[in-house]
């Protein structure tokens, strides 16, 4: 998930390659009814169910691109059997859902939550991965704004949640250093750098930063698609959030115990 153009589809393509190199299976589902072409193999495509263009061209519905997208996602929720039929999952299968970028889907509409609840009811473990373009995080105020959008998504979905800064490979060396400060941010000194003219707003900024700091609510991981280690760290964090592989260990232990008996 994440704002338009934050790199969601590119993340899916990078992960598809990475999984291949690890010899691990991974299936990617396109949930964006407006998507056009893909740089990854698509296991299931929401456009087989509904397409944004068709909705926008419908003379009775009269939707623009954003209203049309919401209509499409509500249609998906009304037709969840389509999704379930397309997710014939084996044990330990790993799916990535490439989601649309409109932020309203995550922070106040119920559709994405309904979707994650459906996946959980089908016995999937679900982790939210929220992407923000690192090029927009280089200033304290923009960083706090990125944290808040990730946070509102996390609170709305109530699932394990990982926040990622994308396009690190595009940053000049100097900005890369600066971005590192944002991976483990000192929110209070950040608040000081954002002083406004109005004391009232300064206090508000301070309190927002304090809140983020007190609860360590959002920590970003850097995602550099040109750096294998950075991809690995992101994947490990998601695996941990999903408790991926824990059952495998249990099965091995059970097997050993059986043999001893
Ligand atoms: N260099 C570089 N370019 C990236 C990276 N991630 C995305 N891009 C580029 O950024 C643009 C948008 O990336 P997408 O992956 O399409 O973004 P998206 O979030 O799927 O966009 P929407 O689906 O339209 O919301 C494309 O031109 C990508 O090639 C990255 O990590 N590094
Ligand atoms: Mg996309």
TrEMBL record:
Keyword GTP-binding: yes
Pfam families per the UniProt record, alphabetical: ATP_bind_1
Keyword annotations from UniProtKB, A to Z: GTP-binding, Hydrolase, Nucleotide-binding
GO molecular function: GTP binding; GTPase activity
Coiled coil regions in record: none
Function field: Small GTPase required for proper nuclear import of RNA polymerase II and III (RNAPII and RNAPIII). May act at an RNAP assembly step prior to nuclear import.
Family: Belongs to the GPN-loop GTPase family.
Assembly description: Binds to RNA polymerase II (RNAPII).
Name the record gives this protein: GPN-loop GTPase 3
Organism the protein comes from: Phallusia mammillata
Native organism taxonomy: Eukaryota, Metazoa, Chordata, Tunicata, Ascidiacea
